[in-house]
Structures are given as structure tokens and as C-alpha cells.
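Model the whole thing, not chain by chain.
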Amino acid sequence: METSFCITWSEGKCLFVYCVILFRSLTDVQRAAALLRRSGLAAEPLRLPTALARGSCAQGIRLRENYLAAAMERLEKSAVRVTGVYDVLPDGRYREVLW
Amino acid sequence: MIYLDSAATTLQKPPAVSRAMARAVCTCANPGRSGHRPALRAAEIVYDCRETAAVFFGIERPERVVFTQNATHSLNLAVKSLLHGGGHAVISGYEHNSVVRPLEALAERGVTYTAAVSPLFDPAAAYRAIEAALRPETRCVILNHVSNVFGFVLPLEQIDRLCAEKGLPLVVDASQSAGVLTLDASAFRAAAFLCMPGHKALYGPQGTGILLCCQDKNLYSLIEGGTGSLSLETRQPDFLPDMLESGTLNVPGIAGLREGLRFVSREREAIRQREARLLRRAAEGLSQLPGLEVFSAERCQSGVLSFRSRRCDPADLCQMLAGRGVCLRGGLHCAPLAHRSGGTLPEGTARLSLSAFTTPADVEQFLQILKELLKSA
């Protein structure tokens, strides 16, 4: 199994596509990751390109795209403020997801 | 050595504290500044400590747990958040200089305050004094939960209710109570800030402190700078904890504090009961020694016991005890206002204070050594 930033491949087949959720602070990132992990939704904290945060330091989590809806619901329920959601495209670019 | 100075700092810590600190020094980078593994590890530790503190103190949102250098730092943030625009504050008669000095420093901004002096070990009188000191222009009440001089437990719940009725925010100095007495922020109605050191009864290392923000309005940052967030903006972020946490955090200290918090989360009630038993025994033993005045109460006292000799200055007495390997503190304990209330100015008191690691044998040996010193003095 081979994992790139955006897609997990196995025997030439795409297994998982990833997306990223942005937050305004590291504490929100860690809180979101902890909340999602406890809900069985694996999420990995990471730094993202500053362009995603309109030039500021971008803090976020990466998770499988099929977890996104459940993740957003969980975060909303816990009042964790999300500042952006992006799909990670196979060529490494980001596409904003309106949520 | 017999260590009875835990109100200044707890010397004996759970072994996990120093282990965690050593690990953090070797494995943690700067949290929130990079995406590599050592930075992420640091971020995880910091967040986990924040969350552990939030759960322990009944704070719903972990971002309202702000890491500071000590209780004085926390109190400065709290006091200046509520009073930087001016106004009047009411403080109890048992406040430390960490409250009185920031208020004095704010005098040039038009801040005034009233110290509600009341007799020692009389919670009802403390309540009445605070109520009587309130004025129409009062902006907040500041209360030391437990006096660092006498161990006097002030009536926090009642004063919280009073403040709620009057619509006034309450600042709680929990320096001597956090980790020993119940402190459930979710039960408070008026408490705006709870301030505490990490290095006392939370068993973290020195250089750590916590500010619990029960609300996030009117915050005032003492310093501004890098937070790892909103970096393009030249203005300080206006959200917690970033607004109040500029610059690199004390990650090794926070790693140690996390272990201390885990320890008290498991042991708090046992610690409280143990300290209460030892305090009673110490008070009883001291009261049997001739020439001593002992400041003790059946109720409303926690972890700290003051006494003084009619023949010997408290600082001298503590120095003599230090020569015999007994560690106490003598003098004013940075709280002249408390001594004014307790009637122990100008020389102050000798103070013993306990921790989870104080043993009955420590107390008995201290009493024996003091008895010998008083005989020979």
C-alpha cells in the first residue's frame, strides 16, 4: 500500500481520498483531532500552505474524504470553529469545498 | 530533610513529572510553528495538558485554559483584563501581593480598590466585609480562596453567589487550593477567572501556571507576539488561548504539569484528607509547646498553618529550623494584607505547609526538633 499526501493506493486502485480542514489556531486543531479520534474518525494534525489561510499560518487536520460529513457534524456540535475545508487533488493542488 | 514549605512550592513531585520533562526536552520542538514530528509531539502534549486541566476544573472548552508562568502572571492577566479601563475592585483581607501590587500599578489608570479586612477564621465576617465594601462603581471582586499565610478557607461559593446577584465578575486566586479543594468552574455563576500556579499542589514544575477563563470577553494581553496563528495580521489574535499565549510555550514544564494534573486527578480527595489529618496533628502538637501562638481552626483551614513564638522572630526561628534540616518559611509570605487582617504584623509568622508527600513522621520529627530548639533558645 502506498500513501501519498492526498490518496492511498493499493495495487493500482485508489483506496482513500483525503481532505483537509483548517482552523484558526493550533489549540482548535488539537481539540478537533482529539474529538474526531474519540468518534472513531482518524484525523492527522498538520501545517498547510499559507495560501489556504489567505497568507497566514495555516493549521489543519487531514482526514479521509468519506469522513468529512461526520467530522463536520461532530465539530459543529462541539462548537469548534472551522475556517476552511479543502479537497486534496491527485496533483497536490487544493480545491475549496463549500460547507 | 523535612520539607514543610509546600505553600511556596511542592518539592517532592510524582516521579512521572521529571520523567516527562526530560523526555520533552529531548523530543519536543516548538508547538504550532512547524509540521514535523517533534513539533506535532509538542502540540499534542500541550493540548493534552490543556484538556486534562479543563476536565479537572470543570471548564467546558479547553482553549479557555491558558498557560502562564505562575499564579502571579495569571492574576495580572485577570486583574488587568477586568480593570484596564479603570474602576473599583473589592478584594478580601487575605490577598497576596500578586493581587495588591497589580492594583496599585493600575492606580494611574484610575483604578481604586477596597480591602475587605475581616477577622481570621471567620468566613461569615469575610462575606459581610466584602458585601459592605461593594460600591456602585465596583467592577470586580478578587478573592483568595485559601490564605497562603493562615490556610484560612474563604467562603468562595457564597461570594460567588453574591457576585452573581450583583452582576460582578469574580477573580479567584486558587494558589493554595487548586489540586486540594474542589474547584469546579462549571458550578460557579460569577467567576470570570481562576488563577493558579502549576508548581504547588498541581505538582508541576516551577515556571508553570494556569489561567482558567470562564468567559472570553474583555481580555487583556500583557505581551504580544508570535502565536503560530493569523501570522499575516499585525494585530494580536483576539481568541483564546492565542491572545494570551505569545511566544514559545514552556513545553517541558507543561509536560511535567500534565503529569502533575494526572496525579491530582486520581488522588485529590485522598490528598485533602491526608493533609487535613496532618494539619490537625501539627496544630495539636504546636499548641502543646510553651510560648507559641498557633493560628488554627477546627474548620475553614486547609494545608497551611502559621505560628509564632513570643521569644523569637519567625524568620530567625525558621532559620534555626533550617539548620536542623527542617524547611519552613518565616516572615510576611508576600502577604502583608493578610497579616494586617490576622493581627500578625510587623514580624509575620512561621508557616508550615503540607503536600501529598508529607508523612506523619515528618510532622512528629518537626515537632520534636522545634521543642528542642525552643528549649535552648
